[in-house]
Write a structure and sequence with these properties.
alpha/beta; 5-stranded mixed beta sheet; 7 helices; 7 strands; Glutaredoxin; two-stranded antiparallel ribbon
Length: 189
């Protein structure tokens, strides 16, 4: 499956995720499986791209399937093509990762620093990192996520990039189903 497969056929929501080491991404990919059906009802297809190897993605999704069509892009080519930022890990940025408190999925008992929230969610989800996850994290950190609503002509009509409006406080946030459906309904088809 590629974006080219949607050209002239239907609009598509392209959702770009970090590797599976990211608990926010895993949760949002699972939610996207539900969102996919809702978007189909308004004529929009979905494609999720996870930044890991195809083998790692197949292993994970064999045990945790999703209804969202998936692609794997270990080299982040799609992220780069769509301009999803990978900010430099400056001392100021790293201080923010240690200090800014988040609870984007609402699963934690309270908001926590990003650096604490990720392992807390891993524990809550019963997720154990693989060697591929460690490699992905080392290669990608601090890659951001993005979502793009693309019309059938290949023109991006709506964009959401993690943290673009809230800075680090927006890390791990994904648009709600209502936000995605509103954007889809406003799409010129």
């Amino acid at each position: 499956m590629s974006l080219h497969d949607y050209r002239d056929r239907s609009p598509v929501l392209l959702a770009l995720f970090r590797g599976l080491y990211c608990p926010f991404c895993r949760r949002h990919i699972a939610q996207l499986g539900v969102t996919t059906e809702k978007l189909k009802s308004v004529g929009v297809e979905t494609l999720a791209v996870v930044a890991t190897s195809p083998e790692n993605a197949r292993l994970y999704f064999r045990f945790r399937p999703t209804r969202a069509p998936l692609a794997a892009d270990v080299e982040l080519i799609t992220h780069r093509a769509y301009g999803v930022p990978n900010p430099p890990a400056t001392p100021e940025f790293m201080h923010g990762v240690q200090e800014v408190r988040v609870n984007p999925t609402g699963e934690l008992p309270e908001a926590m620093p990003i650096a604490s929230a990720m392992p807390a969610l891993d524990k809550l989800h019963g997720y154990t990192h693989t060697a591929a996850d460690h490699q992905d994290r080392e290669r990608q950190f601090p890659q951001l996520m993005g979502q793009f609503l693309i019309d059938r002509d290949g023109i991006v009509r709506w964009v959401n990039v993690e943290g673009s409006s809230e800075g680090l406080a927006g890390v791990g946030k994904f648009p709600t189903d209502d936000q995605l459906l509103e954007a889809a309904r406003n799409l010129r088809r």
